[in-house]
Amino acid sequence: MNKDELAKVFEEIDLEPLAPYSQMGILSTQDEGGIYPPYVPRIGEDYRTGGIALYGTAQSIDKPWDSLREKSKTKKVLQLQDAMDKKDVWIAPYQVMLGAAGMHLLAKEGRIVESLDELHRIVVATNYYKFSLSQGGKDINPELELPGTDAQKAEYRALNDRLVTLELTALKPSVVITFRGRHLEVLKRQVPAVLQINDPSWILQGARGVLKSGKSWDREHADPQARALAISYAGQITHERYRAKADSVAIYLLKYWADWCPG
Asked: For the chain, how far is it from start to end, CA to CA, in angstroms?
């Protein structure tokens, strides 16, 4: 199955499991025209089978933005593919995850990819949950706070599991970088290496103070080349809140490089 075939399957997928959430008024990815279809991953222009896939959790929107409302059904399915620049990928926090992918390539292959823009071209990126849920302007995390009966929750999660299985079958990554959650077990059944990282939003929340010089996550004696790359990635991030914490981002990235190094 190629990406065009995958997009067609996503466009025609049965969305009945979303009906309870639509009726509750908490499904953000819908308008008067109906429920939006799921979106396929953004596939980097230079991605190759066996590459790296980045999985966020879910979009965080309380109502569809105008540009999304105006898209056709087919274009809604392809919405991530339209993001040509790394700053336009609606996966929070995508740019830090790109840095993690670069640190993994250095740790496992000794390969130096110097720019986030180049990493943007070689990875696959998406959210595990393809639909946005919110209530009172607050994002609902489908891993933790999913409303409804046990049966409704199970159907909602099974729909997303099925979509992820389809995209993994089509794209065949060898590595997935993602966050903590029940979805890890689904991914591990299908991908050779699933690497869990702390959601980078944790950096913005202070990270319990561990992302400071001399604290527990600081790898101050790490290989100078790895340290320089982590600092470089942190400096390339355009997202203002992460740029303001560039030192913490560099420590975060270097810590995972150290974790992923052989031995």
From this structure: 37
